[in-house]
Please model this.
Amino acid sequence: MVSGGGGDAPQQTPRVPRPKSQKQEEAEEKRKKQEEESVRMYGTEKDPINCSFWIKTGACRFGANCGKRHEKPAVSNAVVFPGMYAGLFLSEVVAEEDADENLMYDEAEIYKHFKEFYGDVLPEFQKFGRVTQLKVCRNYAHHLKGNVYLQYDNTDSAQQVVDAFNGRFYASKQLFCELIPVQKWKPAICGFFERQKCPKGNFDCNFMHVFRNPGGEFAWADKDMPMPRSDYSRRDDRRDDRDRDRERERDRDYDRDRNRDRDRGRDRERDRDRDRERDERGRDRADRERDHDRDRDRDRDHDRDRGDGGRRDDDYRRDDRDRDRSRDGDRERGRDRDHDRDRDRGRDRDRDNDRDRERDRDY
Model:
């Protein structure tokens, strides 16, 4: 310590850290390697502390008797419902020698029962948030039998489900659920079972033998792939497709009704035009006949006044026959025009119907 003059405060010299010895450096390097190795082995079968099956599947065959640690997370977005699903065959198979009980049910019946269960529980889970995974186990092993796995896109929804469903009853069974550390599903699901080649079977395999979700829902999560789009399930895609189909059908019905109304209006207009033309032709014919009769009477009176040098009655009868013949010709030509007009209208109607059928095929 060095004292300064004039009553200044004493000053301390800085302490220089001692260099580490070789043993200390080796011990620190060994500790770092152990930490890295522990992180690398975490969740694997080589992990000496944590149970790998608990981390992968949230279940362990040995339960509380397992020699490794089952650390339950305080916060997680994954939930397990042990034994929630009581399938047609799961409720009866209690031992390996009873596996033939499965032969009592057809695979189609088993899957139909699962689809009913899936369609019943998924809407209930979706009330708490966005579901990103739902899997149902069909293993015979007691620690995986009938387990239902659920995952959300956030931890709050998972905690709300645990608080809401713990102690509730479903299908005359009291439910229990808890948070699990599962975050990846590809290591948890038995890939051999999907190809029907699992060598251990439903009793001995410690990985999840799961049902295939209807419509391949959440298939991207089975392979730990990112969410394909903002919609969180293919059910929304199917709902959008149904909405688009209904909208397309409404548009098609609207177009068909509009075209039908347009055709009906066009037919009514044609009928009015034809009636108008027929009336005009009738009036013209009546006017011509009236004028002709008037001229004939005038000529007859004139000839009668002139005396014997005028026209005879045979001449008038010949004129009447000519006029009748001309009138019959006009009537025949009018019928031909009406027939041609009706034929053209039928062709137009057939052409419109063909166009409507082509439009329906395009839809």
The longest strand covers residues 131-136.
